[in-house]
TrEMBL record:
Source organism: bioreactor metagenome
Keyword vocabulary terms for this entry: Coiled coil
Coiled-coil ranges from the UniProt annotation: 7-63
Coiled coil is among the record's keywords: yes
Name used for this protein in its record: ErpK protein
Length: 94
């Protein structure tokens, strides 16, 4: 995948992940009290990871050709960690 296509897809992924956080944030009052604390802790963690992911995206878009593959790998790893957190939150609503 070329750099520009990956950059576009990465930006779309960040936007989608942020939208999911907002969605879960708006639904947190509908969750059982016992799970609410875990939800809030996980949301806080994801918000921190969101900032890290955005920083990695900025590194990715500003990287030179020789550093692009490395930046792409780091971004992909950070996004997988973020997705795992979203999966954990989704399971609280089941």
């Amino acid at each position: 995948m070329d750099k520009e296509k990956f950059r576009i897809e990465a930006k779309q992924m960040i936007d989608n992940l942020v939208a999911r956080i907002d969605e879960f944030e708006s639904k947190k009052d509908n969750i059982k009290a016992g799970a609410r604390k875990e939800l809030e802790e996980t949301l806080d963690t994801l918000k921190s990871k969101k900032e890290l992911l955005k920083a990695k995206y900025d590194e990715l878009t500003g990287s030179s050709e020789d550093k692009w593959e490395e930046a792409k790998e780091v971004f992909s790893s950070a996004s997988e960690s973020f997705k795992e957190g979203l999966g954990k939150i989704a399971s609280l609503f089941k």
